[in-house]
Write a structure and sequence with these properties.
Keywords: Mitochondrion. The chain has about 40 residues and is mostly helical. It contains one helix and no strands. Helices cover about 90% and strands about 0% of the residues.
């Protein structure tokens, strides 16, 4: 299977989007855990 330059750029772009989203989700999860600990 041969990748074209455009496909390679798309994969990298999606990877960056996912990574940024993952960091955002990780922060949200940490905040939720903190709020749950305060409730207990």
């Amino acid at each position: 299977m041969r990748f074209s330059f455009l496909q390679l750029l798309l994969v990298i772009f999606l990877g960056f989007l996912f990574f940024a989203d993952f960091n955002h989700l990780a922060k949200l999860v940490k905040q939720k855990i903190k709020s749950y600990k305060k409730l207990d």
